[in-house]
Design a protein that fits this description.
By secondary structure, the protein is an alpha+beta fold. It contains ten helices and 14 strands. The chain has two domains: about 55 residues; about 240 residues, Tubby Protein, Chain A, CATH 3.20.90.10. It is globular, with a radius of gyration of 30 Å. The termini are far apart. InterPro entries: F-box-like_dom_sf, F-box_dom, Tubby-like_C, Tubby_C, Tubby_C_CS. This is Tubby-like F-box protein. It comes from Cajanus cajan.
Length: about 425
């Protein structure tokens, strides 16, 4: 066979392969066009498939009965985590679980993180304990009576003390290893003045009552180049804690008073209700609209460097806030010390121990029993171990912040 005939055959083979590939491409395009006519009208994104899954196909009646039984059987941590797991399966499970799970005021249980911002039960207190670490200046709040050996206690909140030239800050977080105020774990802080006699409790989210939402600080906490611009722009002062100065250095316990700016005094009256938030603000789901001061490029104010006197105080208007005072102890002649009945929850004498009751005027028509009811008690039970028991109308966050004020040094009050 000559060279010319060989080249001709190679060309014919190449042309045949090209026509075959063209026909295959055309057939694929026709197949895709025919498939497009049977495609569903509503496309399901992969994220929705992941969120729903096959468990979402269960009948709603069956699903409701299952989650209700789980919620009733698992009453304490760590077993209560099963209820949280049910809410993490898919959207259907989450919506039903939220409908079944009640607030701590109604059921006396702590389930979701928002429970830490809701008032405690009215009848019996929620019992917790605080573990202090002097080396790291951290304070961990756990749910339970006393520390367990297997570390199965439920961590509720964590705080870190930061000393400054003008005072002390206690940054409160949901995690024990993340105290950044740019994090979604940040829930608030406690700030003291220079003498450690006055404290303000700052909440990262506004109180439930709209009357208090208008009194937020408009300055941003962070520079726009440091963190996401959707970090919340306000810090809400919800409470103030004051310790009475001991000018004459007389012998006796500390005297303290708390003004709960976010809780009206009517909350402890018959038929009254305390503000109850239902969810945390959606930090990254909602757009952030900068204030006019930010748009005009006004110099940014850092709240961490602001003095105590510059912090705005909530204007209550016609709403009178609830005031708390420490219950006066009695002097024990045999023990030669001041004593309070902690009902077995405190075993070590300490200047930090206290009990808070409502400080109300007789004109509010509040019963004597309600006035003597201990709303918050805090005391020492061992080395760096303290108990914290609280009830309505305080929340876990508010009670923990008040107890943190007792850890700060107060030479002017002792």
């Amino acid at each position: 066979m000559s060279l010319r005939s060989i080249v001709r055959e190679l060309k014919e083979m190449r042309d045949g392969i090209g026509s075959t590939s063209k026909r295959g491409a055309e057939s694929k395009r026709r197949l895709s066009r025919t498939k497009s006519y049977v495609a569903p009208d509503v496309l399901v994104t992969p994220s929705e498939l992941i969120q729903q899954g096959q468990w979402a196909n269960l009948p709603s009646e069956l699903l409701l009965d299952i989650i209700r039984r789980v919620e009733e059987s698992e009453t304490s941590w760590p077993a209560r985590a099963v209820v949280v797991f049910c809410a993490s399966v898919c959207k259907s499970w989450r919506s039903i679980t939220k409908e079944i799970v009640k607030t701590p005021e109604q059921c006396g249980r702590i389930t979701f993180p928002i429970s830490l911002k809701q008032p405690g039960p009215r009848d019996s207190p929620i019992q917790c304990f605080i573990r202090r670490n002097k080396e790291t200046s951290t304070y961990l709040l756990y749910f339970g009576l006393v520390p367990s050996e297997n570390d199965s206690n439920k961590l509720l909140l964590a705080a870190k003390r930061i000393r400054r030239a003008t005072g002390t800050d206690f940054v409160i977080s949901l995690a024990a290893d993340d105290f950044s105020r740019a994090s979604s774990k940040y829930v608030g802080k406690l700030r003291s003045n220079f003498l450690g006699t006055k404290f303000t409790i700052h909440d990262s989210q506004p109180p439930h009552d709209a009357a208090f939402q208008q009194n937020c600080q408009s300055s941003r906490r962070f520079h726009s180049k440091q963190v996401s611009p959707r970090v919340p722009a306000c810090s809400y002062i919800v409470s103030t804690v004051s310790y009475e100065l001991n000018v004459l250095c007389t012998r006796g316990p500390r005297k303290m008073q708390c003004v709960m700016n976010s809780i009206p005094v009517s909350a402890i009256q018959e038929g009254g209700n305390a503000p109850t938030p239902t969810s945390f603000p959606q930090l990254f789901d909602e757009p952030f609209f900068p204030s006019p001061a930010i748009k005009k490029k006004v110099p940014i104010t850092d709240l961490s460097s602001a003095s105590y006197s510059e912090q705005p105080v909530l204007n209550q208007g016609s709403i009178e806030p609830l005031a708390l005072k420490n219950k006066a102890p009695r002097w024990h002649e045999q023990l030669q010390c001041w004593c309070l009945n902690f009902k077995g929850r405190v075993s070590v004498a300490s200047v930090k121990n206290f009990q808070l009751v409502a400080a109300v005027d007789p004109s509010h028509n509040i019963s004597a029993e309600e006035q003597e009811r201990v709303i918050l008690q805090f005391g020492k039970i061992g080395k760096d171990i303290f108990t914290m028991d609280y009830c309505y109308p305080l929340s876990t966050f508010q009670a923990f912040a008040i107890c943190l004020s007792s850890f700060d040094t107060k030479p002017a009050c002792e």
